[in-house]
Write a structure and sequence with these properties.
Layout (H helix, E strand, L loop, with lengths): L14 H13 L18 E5 L7 H4 L7 H12 L3 E2 L11 E2 L2 E5 L12 H17 L5 E5 L1 H10 L14 E2 L6 E5 L4 H5 L5 H16 L1
Parallel strand pairs: 1-4, 1-5, 5-7
Antiparallel strand pairs: 2-3, 6-7
Length: about 210
């Protein structure tokens, strides 16, 4: 049984993303350049859902949030709160191990300008639905950003209008894992002050306390 819940390497569900992938295979032949599988154990109680791979981040390395600033902040934070061991070094063979935590993206292929369109988000959502269904011990999902928040709600069969995105919000969904929101840990958000390290830590401090409670 295939357990990464990623599309096939040459998935054609999204023509725009497939075309962009082919361009990148020519421009960057040493990059991963394929749908990026999740990272971390399926029996984790925590799932973190990002937007999509970055061109020179996960699309290059083949591991979510690996190779760019977002990963620097995310994995350091996971280590601080006991969800990771080892040293993150922006490469998939750095020895980093996730503990009781899994990291994935709502869209598995890199989009142009880091912006997937609605049809692409919808086309990839069944993979997230399958992943969530396979995580039998799942208790909390952290959505990084408003689009990921909406993607998770869609995957859980919830109405987006009923659960508004807000940083550090905890949404007690019916018959579903607790949904926790955070601004995305992108360099843009941290450079503009929309998200500070302390704000990001607050989210995972709450997650840790909830799981330990």
């Amino acid at each position: 049984m295939k357990l990464d819940f990623a599309p096939s390497r040459d998935c054609g569900l999204c023509p725009r993303l497939a075309g962009f992938r082919n361009q990148n295979r020519s421009a960057y032949p040493d990059f991963f350049n394929a749908p990026v599988p999740a990272f971390g154990p399926l029996d984790a109680r925590l799932l973190i859902v990002g937007l999509a791979p970055g061109l020179k981040g996960a699309n290059q390395t083949g591991r979510p949030f690996t190779g760019d600033f977002a990963g620097d902040l995310l994995y350091a934070t996971l280590g601080k709160y006991g969800f990771a061991t080892g040293q993150y070094d922006q490469r998939p063979d750095d020895g980093l191990t996730l503990m009781d935590c899994r990291v994935t993206n709502g869209v598995r292929c890199v989009p142009p300008q880091n912006k997937p369109v609605g049809a692409e988000i919808n086309a990839c959502r069944p993979f997230l639905e399958q992943e969530i269904a396979a995580m039998s011990k799942l208790e909390i999902i952290v959505a990084l950003g408003g689009i990921s928040h909406g993607t998770v709600l869609g995957a859980l069969g919830q109405r987006k209008a009923a659960w508004k995105f807000a940083h550090a919000a905890l949404h007690k969904l019916p018959d579903a894992p607790l949904l926790v929101d955070s601004y995305h840990c992108s360099r843009y958000n941290t450079n503009t002050g929309r998200l500070t390290e302390d704000m990001f830590h607050d989210v995972f401090r709450a997650v840790r306390a909830t799981l330990d409670g």
